[in-house]
Specification:
two-stranded antiparallel ribbon
């Protein structure tokens, strides 16, 4: 079907006027932007003696819980980003453990007997790139805490190896489940702000505006004009998608300006926004009243949170999570902010695009069948 530009221009003007007359929406935009400004203002600034880049995280990975590991957990350094996790939480490709780009690791293996039957601990240092000196600050803390625990220098077999250069963004999203308190950084909060902004602009506002049009008879009146359902849906998608990207770009520019040049970030923002547009379109097409549509929108948001919370404990919810586009958009956004201009193409992008395409197809089908009802 041919889409007429002048019809789209009129419909877009209607959406813009509706938005300008909604002070609550404008206030929420201002609130989310203010949070981003306060976050950026409160973030530590690099000094002349410090690098402007964020220090790498060191992952201390253990195979067996022991008093040694418990002692390390109690002696975490305040100046260095160190996280201690079980090897079961680290994603793998074959036998190779995968870590976020640019990070390093200290792997603590189980005690193994030597040729004489004496048990020895074995640790392996892993570093990114070609500079193994990045491990030195973490190794000094590790050995200081280890000697403090054993009371002397223990006999430990030590190895050092570089990490393989491979794409690990989709896989390392599992690491976010290790300890959320250690992940509350400007990158995670920025991701949460973007997620809230996308849901508000592309799902909540779409549902609210379209439900009001249905109750006031505006949709039925539009059915008597030359505008087609396709043009009406495209105008709504263009307006809310543009609003989401503009607000998202503003938040990213405030919190992490260098990430604005990250193609994966913009791809993820577009896909996530389209996914929320599809969800909102299905909700507003099925709901007969604005109250019902608002309740369904709230139920979707709460249901998403419940599925994500239970997915780490119950396999059934983990399967449901795999079919949700938020499962891929959230970690991709987080790592795009944390490692700007360092991410290769990842399989998670393909899954995200396929899921969003399926949601969009379902939304367009339902909307065309029920738009004038």
């Amino acid at each position: 079907m041919i889409v007429r530009p002048h019809i789209l221009r009129i419909l877009l003007g209607k959406e813009l006027r509706r938005f300008k007359k909604n002070p609550t929406a404008i206030m929420l935009f201002g609130l989310l932007t203010l949070i981003a400004v306060l976050m950026a203002a409160g973030a530590p600034r690099p000094t002349a003696g410090n690098s402007a880049t964020q220090p790498a995280t060191c992952w201390v990975v253990y195979w067996e819980q022991s008093p040694w590991i418990e002692h390390l957990q109690q002696r975490l350094p305040h100046q260095l980003p160190v996280r201690i996790v079980s090897e079961a939480r680290i994603p793998r490709v074959g036998d190779e453990l995968l870590y976020p780009p640019g990070d390093c690791a200290i792997e603590v293996y189980p005690n193994l007997p030597d040729s004489e039957g004496i048990l020895h601990s074995r640790i392996r240092y892993r570093y990114s790139g070609a500079d193994e000196t990045m491990l030195w600050p973490y190794a000094r803390w590790f050995w200081s805490a280890t000697v403090e625990h054993f009371g002397n220098t223990p006999e430990i077999v030590q190895e050092i190896e570089p990490l393989p250069q491979r794409s690990s963004v989709a896989a390392v999203s599992r690491l976010a489940q290790a300890s959320m308190s250690e992940l509350f950084t400007i990158d995670l909060i920025g991701t949460m702000l973007l997620f809230a902004m996308q849901f508000f602009t592309c799902c909540h506002l779409l549902v609210a505006f379209t439900s009001q049009d249905r109750e006031r008879g505006v949709l039925r009146a539009l059915g008597l004009t030359p505008a087609t359902p396709t043009e009406l849906l495209i105008s709504k998608f263009i307006f809310h998608l543009g609003l989401s990207l503009a607000a998202g770009g503003l938040i990213v520019g405030i919190l992490r300006p260098q990430a604005l040049a990250e193609p994966i970030l913009w791809f993820t923002l577009i896909c996530a926004s389209l996914g929320f547009l599809a969800v909102g379109t299905i909700i507003v097409s099925l709901a007969r009243t604005q109250a019902t549509a608002g309740l369904l929108t709230l139920c979707y948001m709460l249901g998403t949170g419940v599925v994500f919370f239970l997915a780490s404990e119950l396999s059934t919810f983990a399967l449901v999570q795999q079919a949700m586009f938020e499962r891929y958009s959230f970690p991709l956004t987080f790592f795009s902010l944390r490692y700007p201009n360092q991410l290769p193409t990842t399989p998670g992008m393909a899954y995200l695009a396929v899921l969003v395409a399926m949601w969009m197809y379902a939304a367009c089908h339902v909307f065309h069948r029920r738009v004038w009802r």
